[in-house]
Amino acid sequence: MPISLLAVWSLAVRELKRFVRQRNRVFGALAQPLIFWALFGFGLTPSFRAGGTASVDYFEYFFPGTIVLILLFTAIFATISIIDDRNAGFLQSVLVAPVSRTSIVGGKIVGTTILSVAQAALVLAFAPFAGISLGPIEVVGTLLLMSVIAVGLSGLGFAIAWRMDSTQGFHAIMMSCLMPMWFLSGAFFPASGLPLWLRTLVTINPLTYGLAAVRRVMYWHAPALVGDVPPLGVSIIMSVVFAVAMIALSTRVALADERARPAK
């Protein structure tokens, strides 16, 4: 199906305006990860010791994970609005309009990605308070990686929310699938020293590579502080593959739903 750039941009702008008007989403997606960062950072720093990150306290170690958590939360809160749009009748109006399903997918993912990166960029400004010194290379590289991660998470959230009718069900999936993805990405604890079965889950987790890429770029001039994470090249490739796969999945879900509708 052809994709309309005007439709994509219109739906993305709607998502941005909707976010600005719903300040509770700002708190949920931005304040909660910062609270986690502060509480866990101060609470676990005295006891944190881990292999290659021995010279990094937990307050600093947890900061890149907080960035990824903001991307995840924003993707969750943005894509869950698909369910609200369906219940309110807006989604049905869009579906009967002369707009392709791929345009709907594109608009939602573009809007969610912009929101995710914008919020994460605000938190990135707190890096010096975490003890991380970022130069222009680190900032630009981190923003690009955050965009790739946000696209993947937005696509995943879209694919989950598209066929659901209740926000309660979406929250259940979030707590049972999406949050464990973050916990097993190396954001909360290093993968080194874990039992084999848990390390295997970390290895096959696509978010592991996104976070590893962010860590390696943030510590571009101090690679010894990164710890035991996948190489940068592998992490970037896996992150891009995940983003492309989630775009394909969300598009497939939307198109499959269209074909499944009985003709009238």
What does this entry look like structurally?
The protein has 264 residues and is mostly helical. The protein has one domain (5-260). The protein is 77% helix and 0% strand. It has 12 helices and no strands. It has helices at 5-21, 23-44, 58-79, 81-88, 90-96, 101-124, 127-130, 136-162, 167-187, 196-204, 206-218, 232-260. Helix 3 packs antiparallel against helix 6. The radius of gyration is 19 Å and the shape is globular. It starts with a helix and ends with a helix. Mean pLDDT is 82; it is low at 259-264.
Number of domains: 1
Helix-strand makeup class: mainly alpha
Classify the helix fraction into a percent range: over 70%
Please give the count of helices: 12
List keywords for this structure.
12 helices; about 260 residues; single chain; mainly alpha
Helix and strand layout, with pairings?
Blueprint: H1 5-21, H2 23-44, H3 58-79, H4 81-88, H5 90-96, H6 101-124, H7 127-130, H8 136-162, H9 167-187, H10 196-204, H11 206-218, H12 232-260
Helix pairs in contact: 1-6, 2-3, 3-6, 3-8, 3-9, 6-8, 6-12, 8-11, 8-12, 9-10, 9-11, 11-12
Task: Write a short abstract of this structure.
The chain is an all-alpha fold and 264 residues long.
